[in-house]
Every structure is written in structure tokens, then in C-alpha cells.
Amino acid sequence: MKNKLVIASKNKHKIEEIKDILSAFNFNILSMDEAGLTNLDVVEDGETFEENSMKKADAVMMVTNCIALADDSGLEVDILDNQPGVYSARFSGEGANDQKNNEKLLERLQEVPMDKRQGRFVSVISLAFPDGRKVSVRGECSGMIGFEPKGDHGFGYDPLFIVPEYGKTFAELGEEIKNKISHRAKALEKLQEELKQIVGGKLREDRNHQ
């Protein structure tokens, strides 16, 4: 029987990414909706990604009595003192959405030349276990903020985030490449190692040959 793991998120894109990257583990992975938590709303009022992700994981674990995984992620831009940070999803204020957030970011960086547009995506993933064990891991992906949105894939700030190694935005690269190099992928790689130690998670042998 597979262990149930509930992802503490209602973001369909994020859930798909996490399911894809953790598919090699022997978990029955459920979204909040699939676990019957449609009405559960956790206030993300922490000052750090770590605080927010663990708060969400704890809340879902307490309700479901299952292992809960939560991700809190966002974009930090050096010249903006690491804003939008934990406020990435609501950067443009009330009624915030991806387009409005991207527009505000471009407005804030309007006079900033490319060599000053460094930033990073950050993902902190936390696990809360019914027996009280807790784990948090952090992954980062460095890049530059472009002058205009490019690409049709991904979500959030993906159309503006340029990966120097490829010279393209996350939204241009697509899910297959993004899921190998992203901040969330790096955090999940660390989580895989933690899972091997904590719950005896075992990767399929073909995972290392993909």
C-alpha cells in the first residue's frame, strides 16, 4: 500500500510539477481537493518562505493525519532588496494575478539596465509527519529579469525570468527542462535524499537513467 502524501497547495501548476518530480517515490500523492480539503485556507503570514511552508504543511497534516508537503516559493530581485519575496503571489495588491504581478515588476525595474537585473527563484519545501517529524529544504535558481514577457509555458514570473545558461525564460524552455533546473526541482532533489533517510523512500532504478 502506498503512503498517502497530501500536497498543501491549490495551485494546479505547482501540484503538477511536484507530482512529476516525486513520481519515482512510492507515494499516493493527493492534492488538497483530492483529499477533501477544498475549503481549507491557511493564512500565509510568515516572514520567510520557511515559516509559510511549514505552517501550511502542519495545517494539512493535522486535518488529514497524513504526511503533508507544502511549498512556499517566490522571486527575489537583488536591486529591489529581495522583493517581491514572500509576497510574490500578491505583489500587485488586491486582485493580484500573474499578469498584474509581472506588470508591476517591470514597472519597478523600468530604468534598470540588464546587468543590474539579477534575481533568483526560491523554493522551500516542508514535510510534516503525523508522528511529529518535520523537514524543510531550500532550492534556488539564479537568473536575470527580462524587459518583456517571453514564452507561453509555465506560470507566475516564468515569462520574465531568464536562465543565463539557456538564454531563454522559464516560459520559453518548457516544463521538461524547467523541472530539471528550477528552484523547486533543486529543493525536491534535496527532499529525495531526506525521504530516503526518513521514510525509506526508494527511487525507481530507471530514475537515474533519465
From TrEMBL:
Keywords: Hydrolase, Magnesium, Metal-binding, Nucleotide metabolism, Nucleotide-binding. Gene3D superfamilies: 3.90.950.10. The keyword Transmembrane helix does not apply. Its EC number is 3.6.1.66. It catalyses: dITP + H2O = dIMP + diphosphate + H(+); XTP + H2O = XMP + diphosphate + H(+); ITP + H2O = IMP + diphosphate + H(+). Mg(2+) binds at D72. Binds 1 Mg(2+) ion per subunit. Pyrophosphatase that catalyzes the hydrolysis of nucleoside triphosphates to their monophosphate derivatives, with a high preference for the non-canonical purine nucleotides XTP (xanthosine triphosphate), dITP (deoxyinosine triphosphate) and ITP. Seems to function as a house-cleaning enzyme that removes non-canonical purine nucleotides from the nucleotide pool, thus preventing their incorporation into DNA/RNA and avoiding chromosomal lesions. This is dITP/XTP pyrophosphatase. It comes from Geosporobacter ferrireducens.
